[in-house]
Backbone:
């Protein structure tokens, strides 16, 4: 939401019918990690680069380099859902 909407300064003509949202947003546009209550911790020494974690991340918070290897989390985007930790067979991701 824009600041004008939050401050109730948006003209009624600028609002959508029923408050519907017509365009998708994502974690690349907003820092959704600010409200995270648990944090994933990446243990690179345990990671086997199997590639199971990054496809299940709903916010694309697990970067993968051009070499195909994953890096540490993008904590600005990570909401702490823990899906990545559940799919990791090597316990390389720990939720704290």
Residues:
């Amino acid at each position: 939401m824009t600041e004008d909407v939050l401050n109730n300064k948006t003209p009624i003509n600028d609002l959508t019918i029923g408050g519907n949202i017509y365009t998708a947003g994502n974690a690349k546009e907003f820092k959704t990690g600010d409200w995270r209550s648990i944090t994933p911790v990446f243990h690179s020494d345990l990671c086997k680069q199997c590639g199971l974690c990054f496809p299940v991340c709903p916010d694309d918070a697990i970067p993968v380099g051009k070499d195909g290897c994953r890096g540490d989390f993008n904590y600005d985007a990570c909401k702490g859902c823990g899906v990545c930790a559940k799919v990791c067979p090597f316990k390389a991701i720990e939720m704290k």
Summary: The chain has a mean pLDDT of 83. DSSP finds two helices and two strands in the chain. The radius of gyration is 18 Å. The chain has one domain: 1-96.
